[in-house]
Amino acid sequence: MPVTFDPECGPKCRSKNHAYELVSAITKGNLAEVQAFAKLCHAPGHHNDMFGRSALHMAASCGKVEIVEWLIEEKGGDLTLKDAESGWTALHRAMFYGQLATVRLLVQYNSDLYTRDHLGLSPLDLAMKDRPPYVSYDKADLCDVYTWGDNINLTLGHGKEQRRGHPEVIDEFRKKAIQVKEVVLCKYHSVFLTVDGQVYTCGHGQGGRLGHGDEQTYTVPKLVETLRDQVCVQVVASRDHTVFLMKEQVSNLNHPEINIVIVSCSDAATVCLTTRGDIYVLHEYQCRKIASKWQDIQEIYVSGGNLDHMSDLEVLREKGGEELRIVLLNSTGKNLRK
């Protein structure tokens, strides 16, 4: 497409012709061609087409990594700009079209992984929602664990305290071919559950929260040795404690006939669901049954709870805690509050 001069082109060019020509250069050309076009426009890279798509949107959709980086570095490409059609950022578009190299680059430039589109979907949601029907996943497949973000409390499992600005694989699992199916990250520690029911933890061990029989700090995930010969089916954790639900349950809640199927916890409380549909709350040094015969419960969420007023001051939260709230999700998708 020949480049045309447009009287609408100025310091804040809003020429639709230039917008279409730039899109054509991005989708069909390379970085050199796009840069050549940019010399003929006062404000290249700041145009939007009739659907509200910017040059950065189109480059991300096409997986043109060099053009994406050039637009960000040289032309001030806006990572937060959403198109008019779907409310997608450049990261949404790169994720939807499977441009993984572009996704990685955008994440390195701190593009938001959790910003929502018009349907309330984040870029990560698109990666899961728009899986082609011929692509299937199996929990038995080999998998790696990636973590990133602040690492001041050594919860990422990389062995060093440095912050990770983009996803990095945990080498401890990769080099031993350990497959992880569930991860729980808390403020001071992390818990990893493998496909064969083994539990690994890392982070600060104050109070014995890691389960290693000491209060040491572990920078990489370490196997909880006391559970080596048992199979764990679920792990939950909060700031100061960790709960393991084992396949073979000898005695639960001081009642041998009770069999727990789901557990959940907050900083100050633990909630258990039994096979009979009974719900127990462990809170303030008491074990109380709060519901019976709720056998269609699929998930439990709990927050708040009050800590013992006799605890040390450094353990107590501000004002001693919060109101205990429990949310139950049943098989029909209905939320039930307690």
From TrEMBL:
SUPFAM superfamilies: Ankyrin repeat (SSF48403), RCC1/BLIP-II (SSF50985). InterPro entries: Ankyrin_rpt (IPR002110), Ankyrin_rpt-contain_sf (IPR036770), RCC1/BLIP-II (IPR009091), Reg_chr_condens (IPR000408), Signaling_Regulatory_Domain (IPR051625). PROSITE patterns: ANK_REP_REGION, ANK_REPEAT, RCC1_3. Pfam families: Ank_2, RCC1. Keywords: Kinase, Repeat, Transferase. The keyword Transferase applies. GO terms for molecular function: kinase activity. Coiled coil: none annotated. It comes from the Eukaryota. The keyword Transferase applies. This is Inhibitor of Bruton tyrosine kinase. The lineage of its organism: Eukaryota, Metazoa, Spiralia, Lophotrochozoa, Mollusca.
